[in-house]
Every structure is written in structure tokens, then in C-alpha cells.
Amino acid sequence: MRVRMEALVRSLQAEIVDALQAVEDSEPAAGGGDGAPARSPAKFRRDAWERPDGDGAGLSCILQDGRVFEKAAVLVSVVRGAPASEALLRQMRARALKGDAQLDPAKPYRLFVAGISLVVHPHNPNAPTAHLNYRYFELREDGKDEPAAWWFGGGSDLTPSYIFEEDAAHFHSVIKAACDKHDRSYYPRFKTWCDTYFHLPHRDEHRGVGGIFFDDLDERPAPELARFVEDCGRAFVAQYVPVVARRKDAPFSPAMKTWQQIRRGRYAEFNLVYDRGTKFGLATPGARVESIMCSLPLTARWEYAHEPEEGSDEWKMVQVLKNPREWA
Is 51:82 a contact under the CB 8 Å cutoff? Predict the structure, then answer.
């Protein structure tokens, strides 16, 4: 399973980078955007790296300040047998082993992780931000090859600045179809989990219009769950590329850009305060901070006591964020 999942995340990365680069390279529509001359397209920078202790590697593909995308980051990270730190084990202290046993922080465990994560922040405020993460974990006691615990996690979600119902419906319907191939209970279960997870309690609003999210998934044989994760990962291009393609050149005003930057601030708040993936990454020995933090937008804005005018498009967006809806 370790070999299979490492190959999968690398394959998904190549597929998604190629699709996003094609959008970035596409010709802008006449009369779109903010009226300024079109930017030149940017190319993905590829940074291959190895963990300092030699027990892992990754590839970070980053595009910044391009024609379509302010930032697009598609990352693969593989950890092969690093010691699991006490801080990391504390975050996973509820993980069940075989039977009713729990992970014992006093025992030496080795960690395997193969994961892909991405975030895409377009320039145009009509075009939504997208996020994806799929990963496989194993914990093994020192000297043992059989994992003491293994599980899958991940999901994909959409964060618009302006609500276009057809975009949200499309994004959800594609991932629902991928889920339904495996279990018709998956989409409603993981959609609810996504709404619950991507919530900012201090703002009393959700980060976006959701998608799916799951963690600790080990309820079926690993090969069966690996097929499910692969189908979800392969669905992303169909989920997102048609949405960003039809919004990337839509006209927008300076006020709309300001609103996008305020929403980007909320995105950053969630990632820095609540996101377990950020905390897990920073707790992993030999963490590559540049890769962990590249999910943050290139630009963001905080305004004191900002409230959108009732009835405005911005106000309508906030109402959706405060009251999650069914989209598929």
C-alpha cells in the first residue's frame, strides 16, 4: 500500500498541474477582468526536495502571480519511516489500534505518509479558490513491518468570494458521483463533515461552500479505500477547471477585488488557527515550512468591523457561509 499510494499522489500531481497550466496559458477573453492589460502567463516552479534525515521526499509545484492564478500550489510529500514525535502522537492520541488499544506515546513509532495537497487562488474575484488534500498514513512500532494503525484522509472544497449557484452545484455533483461509485452514504456523510470542519467559530461562518472531508478512514480493506481515494482525486480536474475557466475573465470592479481580499483574510485565519493539517505538518520532524505555508494566499486584507450592505452580492455570500446548503 505504501508503494501504491506514493505512486498515486505523484500521478495526481502531474495530472492536476498540467490541467491548471493549460488554464493559465489560455488566451484571455476580450473585455474581461478589471480592464487592465492582460498579464503574461506564469509557469509552475518545481522544487524537488528531500527530508534532512533522508527518510522522505517531495515535490512542490508553485505558480505565483500569473495571468489567471495569483497562486497555485500543488504539493506532494512522502515520509518513509521517520520517528513519530510526541507532539505528533498527542494529536493522534485517539487513534485506535487493533481491538480497543490506543496509541501509546511512550512507545517508539515510525511514520509513513504519502499525501497530495493543493490550493488555487485565482486573481479574478468571480473565480473561486479551491483546495484538495488526499493522504495515507501508517504507524509502525520500531522493528515491525505490520502497521499498528493505518488510515486515509482527505477531501476537496470550494471557497468563492461571490456565490454562483451553478458553480457550487457543479463542484458538488462531480465529487458526489465519485463517492456514489463506492458507497452512496459517503457523499452526505463527508459533505456534512466538511461543513463542520471548515468552520470559523470566532466568525460564526464557514470557510466556503464545502465539498467533502473525511479522516481516520479505515472501515474497509485498504485496497478498496485506496480506489475510492483515487477516484476522488481524479475527479478534481472535472470539479474545478470548468468553473475557473468560465469565471477567470469575468469583469470585476476595485470594490469586488477588495471584497476578495477580505475573504482571503478569513481563509488565512482558518488555516493558521484551526487547520489540523497545518498543525500536523509543523509537528512532523523535519517539516518543510515553505510547503506547509504555501496554502496561504499571496495577498489578503483585514478591515476593522467590515459589514457588507444588506442585499448586496457580498451580503448574499455571507448568508450562504452562515447557513450551509445542499448542492447536489
Answer: yes
C-alpha cell at 271: 488555516
Residue of 131, 170, 172, 206 marked active site? 131
- Annotated active-site residue 123? The verdict is no
Output phi, psi for 303, to 5 deg: -115, 140
The Cα 157–Cα 232 span in angstroms is 12
**Tell me: the pLDDT tens digits for 272-295?**
999 887 877 777 666 788 888 889
Residue 80 has a CB neighbour count (10 Å cut-off) of: 16
Half-sphere exposure of 246 (CA within 13 A, CB side): 8
- Given pLDDT bands bounded at 50, 70 and 90, which one contains residue 99? very low
Q: Quick count: other Cβ atoms within 10 Å of Cβ 171?
A: 29
Task: Please say whether the beta carbons of 20 and 69 come within 8 A.
Answer: yes
Is the pLDDT at 90 greater than 70? The verdict is no
